[in-house]
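User: I'm new to structure prediction. If I give you an amino acid sequence, what do you actually give back? Let's try with this one:
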Amino acid sequence: MMPQSIDRKLRLFFYLILFLLLSTQITKNKNIKSNITTKLNNIEVIGLSDENNLKVYESLKFLLTENILFINKKDFQNILTKNNLIDSFYVKKIYPNLIKVKIKKTDLLAITNKKNKKFYIGSNGRLIPINQIKDTNNKLPFVYSKSNYIDFVKLKEIIDKSEFKFEEIESFYYFPSNRWDIKTKDGFLIKLPKKNIVNSLKFAELIKTSNKFKNKKIIDLRVSNNIILSNE
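Assistant: Good question. You get back a string of structure tokens that encode the predicted 3D arrangement of the chain. For your 232 residues, that looks like this:
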């Protein structure tokens, strides 16, 4: 009987040790889980100047301490789409408690005047106060228009697809008939039609670079299949 009694005691001892080991491991896992939080405690913003990155961060601080699992893009859209400097943005969650916001800054395309104040026109079609940008760019063309800045952006995209160089343009003039005039830095005034602008710009470039028409400074392309040249 003695060998059986010893064997039973050994088994009981083994089970006790195993139980203690498992209990210790479970306790450790609980402690690890209790130290991991899904509350957002940091937001990183990149893409703008340091000053404007900080301003964006300040506008998003209300999300801190929120559960990162329940934060979605709409929480950022409501804030970031109001910022005229932002063309687009990308939000990335890095668990357990960090969100990175990568911003694509709007390109500055031109300068305009509204209510006696100067603004940049961004590639997002929105106005940005000149004093909001530290490095002023005075080489940009000037747009004479009280509105229709989205139309100007579309016109810029058309010009970029043509043989005409946007950098050669000094100013743009918008008319209520939804038509544009362009004045180049070398003194040409080009009157564009409402449609077929790419073809019109092609003709304008040919005329502008031809010695035959070097004295003709006004190129009127408003009427389809007609080109009117004059000096004034």
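You can read the tokens as a compact description of the fold. Here is one thing that stands out. The first strand starts at residue 42 and ends at 46.
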